[in-house]
Design a protein that fits this description.
Blueprint: H1 3-15, H2 24-41, H3 47-60, H4 78-88, H5 91-103, H6 107-111, H7 115-121, H8 124-135, H9 140-147, H10 154-164, H11 169-181, H12 183-194, H13 197-200, H14 212-229, H15 234-249, H16 253-277, H17 281-284, H18 287-315, H19 336-348, H20 355-380
Helix pairs in contact: 2-3, 3-16, 4-16, 5-10, 5-15, 5-16, 7-18, 7-20, 8-9, 8-18, 9-10, 10-11, 10-20, 11-18, 12-18, 12-19, 14-15, 15-16, 19-20
């Protein structure tokens, strides 16, 4: 073997390595990935999602990695396979809703159905942001997919974005889950700004007991009403109510356990990594995704304001007043937003227990954001 042959072999080996192809854009995305993994590991902000999302961002921003493309035979590579069958086929968001349903107790909402109005009022930011996006030059489909971020419902955001504007999936999903994780930081100042001390001290009546029959009937009746009104959201809400029926029937404990734990954990891994892997620097480091992040913050803030304002408006007509601190829970970050209501209430009265009251609007927010998504799909197709 000649020296030239040795040189060519060495050069060919070097060319297959990625070390000489690293760019500053990749290094910047590594830093962004590290930030999200820091939030998950050190700050414990939504670690089940931010950790796999952060790692997905990290691993896809290496040169020449065979992860999000297609093989020479036309088959999807590893993460592209997860993305194609899980997200493009819209399976993962629906399976996550199945798991959420299996973990949900609708008792607080059944006991106080007025909370549905709070969940509806908290969708204000969705439509305000949608309008702002249209004025900023987004298409109607893009504006709808960005607007839904304020509902703080990651699976619904993914479901709607995949139908209407799949090119925005990475930015939208990352924004939705980021703001979900930062609920304890973002919402309390808004809640305190919008309420008086007297309002924060309101003690609500203990919720009535809800029978098992009511809990079994609720997912069935809700399915009828929601799907007749908004057929486009049937995959999400159908699976959500099925999971809840598993739980409340009491006869399929194994299905309930699997739906709410093992199955949900498995698809969460695929979801996080797949979403993170859409954040290649070539797609993310442009004005539109960065603008979406700023709009997402505005969206979330306005949704929180809408929920608190709805409670204050309702109190003008109610004999038994509602503590406006639970208005923030109208966004569908379950159960983080309800916990924030309780924690802020405890700052002013240690004997004021708002958690179960706040779960009502929190669950109403899940249905409200899904209904808003269904409305957008019906209006703009998908």
């Amino acid at each position: 073997m000649s020296a030239y042959d040795v040189y060519e072999m060495f050069k060919g080996t070097i060319d297959t390595m990625g070390i000489l192809s690293i760019s500053w854009q990749m290094l910047l995305m590594w830093a962004i990935a590290a930030f999200f993994m820091y939030l998950a590991i050190v700050k414990n902000f939504e670690p089940l999602l931010l950790l796999p999302i952060g790692f997905g961002i990290f691993i896809v921003n290496f040169p020449m990695v065979p992860l999000m493309g297609y093989t020479s035979a036309g088959h999807p590579e590893l993460i592209k396979f997860f993305y194609h069958y899980g997200l493009e086929w819209e399976i993962i968001p629906c399976v996550i809703f199945l798991g959420l349903g299996a973990l949900t107790d609708f008792g607080p909402l059944i006991a106080n159905p007025k909370m549905l109005l709070v969940g509806a009022g908290a969708q204000l930011g969705v439509f305000v942001t949608f309008t702002g996006c249209v004025m900023a030059g987004f298409t109607l489909k893009e504006a709808a997919s960005v607007g839904i971020i304020g509902g703080a419902d990651g699976p619904t955001t993914i479901y709607l974005t995949q139908k209407l504007a799949p090119e925005l999936l990475g930015a939208n999903a990352l924004a939705a889950y980021s703001y979900m994780a930062m609920v304890p930081l973002i919402q309390p100042p808004i809640m305190k700004m919008m309420t008086t001390k007297a309002e924060r001290l309101i003690k609500m009546r203990q919720l009535r007991a809800v029978s098992q029959t009511e809990k079994i009937c609720y997912p069935l009746v809700s399915t009828i009403v929601i799907i007749l009104l908004v057929p486009a959201v049937a995959p999400l809400m159908g699976m959500f109510m099925l999971g809840n029926l598993f739980k409340e029937s009491g006869v399929v404990a194994r299905l309930t356990e699997t739906s709410g734990n093992a199955l949900m954990n498995i698809v969460t891994i695929f979801l996080g990594v797949s979403v993170g892997a859409t954040m290649h620097w070539s797609a993310f480091l442009s004005p539109k995704p960065l603008f979406i992040f700023s709009l997402g913050m505005v969206d979330f803030v306005v949704c929180t304001i809408g929920g608190v304002a709805t409670v204050k408006l309702m109190n003008l007509f109610l004999k038994d007043k509602i503590n406006p601190l639970i208005g923030n829970a109208g966004v569908s970050a379950v159960p983080m937003a309800a916990r924030v209501s309780h924690v802020v209430g405890q700052e002013y009265d240690k004997k004021n227990y708002l958690l179960m009251h706040a779960m009502g609007p929190n669950l109403a927010g899940v249905m409200g954001s899904a209904a808003a998504a269904g409305l957008f799909i019906a209006m703009f197709g998908g």
